[in-house]
Structure formats: structure tokens, C-alpha cells
């Protein structure tokens, strides 16, 4: 599923985190950063990336310039002479600018990969199918939206994604091969998963039968259990991040918002709101401690959506959805699909508990519960 409305942004100031800007506009599957000044976007993007429609395939001495990546340095705009920060730069490209950017990428070589086709587009960049020329194999390359580079946090997030995922070796996790910066573009080279996302599947089918939805949940929970054991919380579990390979097995993508558990446990009160409004757990909205049980909540929302074709909390604005996560009880899925049975209904309601302590203790406990579902749950 693609975010074709990537350029549709809305100003909002209601959900400040630790950074000076706010992630708030839903784009179908993710927030877009909302800011007001979009006037000199072209200038900003070009200044940061160079001429995007230029020849990216020309060889560059030294290849990927990862040595330049000093993520500890604040490369944001300098204060002016009387100490005021300049106006924040526009972080989103218009749809036309995004398309031009993507057209400039296609056919070019970046990180030793020949860019063949666009696979999709998300909140932080575009994903391309590419040929890794040295390895002679297909890969997926995510390229960060150049309008975001200006904001150091997004670059950090991009690299955090790479590091988190690179730590994990599991058949249920999309492998990360490489990460770097070349010609001013930040990229991530990952395993290409040929197939569709669970989001695409739900969109196509409307809803998924219980046996298939539970299988997807079990495979996702197994991958999460491995990540959690490694101290990594995904923090952005949702249907578009669950890829289905050619044999229909789940591969979890985008450990982009992942956070080391130790860091998560220390952070309280000041954590940033990040993620997708439909799947975001209450503690991530309210700035509470986010641990592995946050992923269980998001997986519960995903399972609810897969089974019923509806998210537990819907609304016309992201703010409305966020408030519902915090305050409303979901309609039990069994009321929408009576065949589900008490046991599966109970598992989903437990995953959707407002307080992490009300949910399963960890992914393994969830796996045990799912494994002991009676056959009637699948009739
Ligand atoms: N490794 C991959 N192999 C094949 N297709 C991929 C891969 N990674 C992403 N895609 C495709 O690219 C699309 C966009 O992915 P991306 O992660 O940029 O955005 P998203 O997950 O839809 O949203 P968000 O940015 O909010 O996480 C996905 O929906 C999927 O169709
Ligand atoms: Mg994604």
C-alpha cells in the first residue's frame, strides 16, 4: 500500500514531543511531519541533495560516504546573530516534487545498486526494487525523503532502523544489507521480499479468515519474540510493515522506530510521539514507558483489522484516533464477526488493554495462547 497522498500535510501543534516539531498528519499508513512554511521547499531539497534530476549514475570516487555521518553533530540550521533559531524548514515534498525525485532515481546507480522500479512510498522515503550489481541479486533500497535530511532526527531514525535490523537474524525479519550516504542521499539496502504486504492483502480481501489471520499473527509474534530477546522494540507494527514472501511467510520490515529496550525503560514522560495513529499504543501517545508490550498492542490492532476489516479506533483526524486509544474501549471483535469465538476475542481484547500490564507479558505468552486456540475459533 502506498502513501500517494504524501504531500498532503496539515498544520498541527497539539502533540509536541521532545523535538521542536510534531509528527501528526496521517497519510494512510503513517504520520507526516507538519510544518507551515512550504515556500522554499525546492530550494531546501536541492540544497541538501544536489540536483535530483541530474545523473546519479556517474561514478563517484570513494563510493558510499558513510564516514561523513556524524550523527552526534547537530547539523540543523544555525542560530541567527541574536540567538534566534531560523524558521523550521519544510520537511515534506509536494506530490510533484516527490515524483520528480523518484523519476530522478529510477535508472540510476546508488550504493552499487541499479534502481529498477518503485515498490512503494512511506512516511520517510521511497522504496525501490534494485539490482545489486556486484552480488547480482535483487534488493530493496529505501531512500530517505531529501526534504527530511534537514531535520537531523529523521536521519538518525533512518540509521537506527538499519542498526536495529542489522542486529537481527531471523527468517521472520527483513534482512538489512547496507546503509549509507551517497551523493547526498541516505539509503538503506535490504532484502527484497517479493509479494505483497498484509496491508495490501486486507485491502484486497476486505477481511481475512481467522486461520490465516492467526497464522500471520503467530509468525509476527515469533519474529517479535526474537527482537525483544535482543532488546529491540519495533514500535511501528502495522499491516504495511508485515511483508508476505512468495511462500506467504511473514517478514517484518522497518525497525525504523525501534529503540533499545534499555533506552525505552529509561525514557518516561518525554518520549516523542511517533508511529501510525491506528496502531499506536496508549503509552506511546502519553509519553509513558514504551517496552515490548507496545508491539503487542499494535499487533492486536493489526489482528483486529485483519479479522474484522475495521480498526478498533477510527476517526476523521489523527487526534480523534489518538484520543480514542487513550480513552475508549474497543468494540469486541466478536460483535463484528460472531464466528470468532470467546477465546480469540479474549486474546485480542487482552492485547488491546490500555495498560501494558493488562496485556500478555511478552510475545511468547501470546504465542502460547494462540497455539492453544480451540478448533472452533477457525470455523
Ligand atoms: N524489503 C522490501 N521488499 C519489498 N517491498 C518492500 C520492502 N520494504 C518496503 N516495501 C514496499 O514499499 C512500501 C513502502 O514502504 P515504507 O516502509 O517506506 O512505508 P510504509 O511501511 O507503507 O509506511 P511508513 O513509512 O509509515 O512505515 C511498502 O508498503 C511495501 O509495499
Ligand atoms: Mg514500512
Mind sketching the topology for me?
Elements: E1 22-26, E2 31-34, H1 41-49, H2 95-105, E3 109-110, E4 113-121, E5 125-132, E6 137-144, H3 152-167, E7 176-182, E8 185-191, H4 198-205, H5 210-229, E9 232-233, E10 242-244, E11 250-252, E12 259-260, H6 261-266, H7 282-285, H8 292-308, H9 318-327, H10 333-336, H11 342-351, H12 363-371
Antiparallel strand pairs: 1-2, 3-4, 4-5, 5-6, 6-8, 7-8, 9-12, 10-11
Helix pairs in contact: 5-8, 5-12, 8-11
The structure holds adenosine-5'-triphosphate and magnesium ion.
Adenosine-5'-triphosphate (ATP) binds at residues 1, 29-30, 119-125, 127, 140, 142, 174, 190-193, 197, 236, 240-241, 243, 253-254, 276.
Quick recap:
By secondary structure, this protein is an alpha+beta fold. It contains twelve helices and twelve strands.
Radius of gyration: 21 Å
Q: Roughly how many Å apart are the termini?
A: 29 Å
Outline type = globular
Structural class: alpha+beta
Question: What's the level 1 CATH class of the domain at 196-378?
Answer: Mainly Alpha
Helix content: 25-40%
- Percentage of residues in DSSP E strands: 15-25%
- Largest sheet, spatial ordering of strands: 3-4-5-6-8-7
Which series of helices and strands comes N to C? EEHHEEEEHEEHHEEEEHHHHHHH
